[in-house]
Design a protein that fits this description.
- Strands 20, 22, 23, 24, 25, 29 and 30 form a 7-stranded mixed sheet that branches.
- With 444 residues, the chain is mostly beta strands.
- It folds into 2 domains: 241 residues, TM1070-like (Hypothetical Protein Tm1070, Chain: A); 179 residues, Jelly Rolls.
- The chain is 1% helix and 51% strand.
- It is built from 1 helix and 31 strands.
Length: 444
Amino acid sequence: MTRRVLLLGSLALLVALVPAFAGTVYLPVSANKTVGSVTYQTRLWLSNPGTAARQVTIFFILEGSDGTQRGTAKPQAFTLAANGTMLLTNLAPNGVSGLLEITGAPQILATAHLEGLDAQNAIASTGYLPAISSKNMVAKNGTADLLSLSRNDNGPVTNLGLVNLGQQVTQCTVRAILVNGAPLGAAAVVTVPPVSVRRFEDALGFLGISAVADARLSATCDQNFSAFAEILGTAVPSVILVTPTVSLDSTLVPPGTNPLPGDSVVVQRAGTFFIATTNASSFSVSLPLVAKQQYGKATIEYDMTTGAFSPVYDSILGFVRQTGHGAARILYFGFNIRGSRGKTFIDLGVPILDPTITGSFPWQQRTTYHIKIVYDVQARKMTLQASRNGTVLHNLSGAIFNLDMSDQGTGLALKFGLDGIADEAFFPPYGYSFANLRAQIDPI
């Protein structure tokens, strides 16, 4: 079943409550916007592949406005029938751009096209425009690279969009780079309002570039964000949409090669996978090890953005054998920091001996660090590194005591955060965010 809906037309809204388990994605949109002599518009498809009707709401945020200030404006509500698909047009007021906030049942699928219309208003060119979610957003202080961009005085032009997913104003730095790595002009520093999109029409021209092919734009923002580029024809309809690149950080291998030793287990979580809040202060990542197999080394890497420090210790990460009795339960290590005192404290999980690894480091609030931890059973050693922008700032190591790295039926896991305050000294890392996890567990 397909329904065509005029979203901003005279539509009788359906009264519906968004369920508590709803998810939200954001979609940059334009309606009948002219570039040169060509008109461009966005169309959105929503689909419900399930066997029960699902609900969704859509709220339009005008480009450059503060998306946290809603006033009396209300989202529009829709019900998607079982196995139904809905096509939405007129997604923004005529001639302007903005951001759609789409909230609904997690089973609902969303996709959109940016379309160039010819003189007869027929679709002459189209490009796929993905929605932005927690799975594909860029963590704050991360970098979004947009490749193969071009500009010349006769078209096409490259438009840049920066989407701020944070609830505070974000500051972004945008750089343009040639194929040979040389910078194209000076970096631009811009701001984007909370939960909003800011567009830079003819972005390469904005940076002072008159003609170029295969340029790269690189954006970094201090809130969770996303970026996209539109390469649009100015005389005839032509649409190329560019989203942040995929890096080669992959466990896939070509035929005939095996860079991972034996039965290594790799677990990855791209983008931001956990933000510690008062209602959700811990997050567990299971490690699917082969039962009874002995493993010799765990290499754990992730990005951590600190929040405000607690009065004593912030409990960051525990590497554990899951709940069991006696020797079945193991804490391989617990990583904690005491930011107010510039201390790092690693509990090695042997209550009788009470062994720890400690060190001094001036941790900073609201700062992103790349953390790399290696727990090496065969070397009987653990190391922890904290780095920023590729420079190692903090290096800590020491002997370890729990050497049975195996799944005895209850599973192993990485436990970020803490369910509550422990021993009046260990606090959940409220306000911290964690992104881009990669854990590799190698067998002996």
